[in-house]
Amino acid sequence: MCLKVQRRQQDQQQPVSPVAQRAASIEGIQARMARTNLQQGLHTTACNRTEELAAQLSAARNELEDLYQERDQLRSEHTKLVDEVHQKATHLASGGGVRAVGLHDRLG
C-alpha cells in the first residue's frame, strides 16, 4: 500500500485528541483570516487604483472639453477670415479698388 493510504488509515483508526482537534481548528481559522486579510488588501488596492484612474479620466475629459472649445473658437475665426477674404475677392473681381482699365490705357 501507498504510504499516504497507510497514514490515512492509521489516522482514521486512531482517535484524535481534543488538543489536536483544537489545534486543527485554530489553524483553519488562521488560514481563513489570512485569506480574508489578503482579499481585503487586494480589495483596498483595487479601490485605490480605481479612484486614481477615475481622477485621471476626469482630468482627461476636462482637457478634451477644453480642446473642443478651442477647436470651435478656431473654426469660428477661420470662418470669419474666409468670409472676409471672399468679400474682398468679390469686391476686387467686380472692379472695386483695381483700375484695370487705367492700367490697360497706360500700357496701351
Write up this protein:
- Residues 1-22 are annotated as: Disordered.
- The protein is an all-alpha fold and 108 residues long.
- It has one domain.
- Helix content is 88%, strand content 0%.
- It has 3 helices and no strands.
- It is rod-shaped, with a radius of gyration of 43 Å.
- The model has no long low-confidence stretch (mean pLDDT 85).
Short description:
By secondary structure, this protein is mostly helical.
**Helical amount:** over 70%
- Point out poorly predicted stretches: none
Q: What coarse outline follows from CA principal-axis ratios?
A: rod-shaped
The radius of gyration is 43 Å
Topology record:
Elements: H1 3-13, H2 18-93, H3 100-107
Coiled coil: 47-84
Region (Disordered): 1-22
Keywords: Coiled coil
Tags for this entry?
108 residues; coiled coil; mainly alpha; 88% helix
